[in-house]
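Why do we care about 3D structure at all? Because function follows from shape, and shape follows, mostly, from sequence. That is the central idea of this module. The next example makes it concrete: a single protein chain, its amino acid sequence, and then its structure expressed as tokens.
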Amino acid sequence: MIKEIEIDKLILRDSDIDPTTFNTLKKSILKIGLIIPIMVEYKKRKFVVFDGFYRVKVMKELGYSIVKADVYVDSEFGLIKSEKDLIVLEKKMVKIRKTFEEIKS
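And the structure:
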């Protein structure tokens, strides 16, 4: 389910940032906006980002306060119960990466 979520309510994992990737994504978001929603898991009343770390960081730097997110309830991601669930998730992540690669080139 796609929702608009306040950026300050997102929980991000700590990660190193590659300046080239960050700046490329920043230029893209400035030019055309966010194309693919980030992916978050809603668990224990918190939104945990599991795909879209760079997008959130860029949008926050650009002054956005809300981001579109594909929200998974804990049983949909944290507790994947079938191979079908995993395949659906992998297809979404491939689509995101493919779109980003097209934007970079």
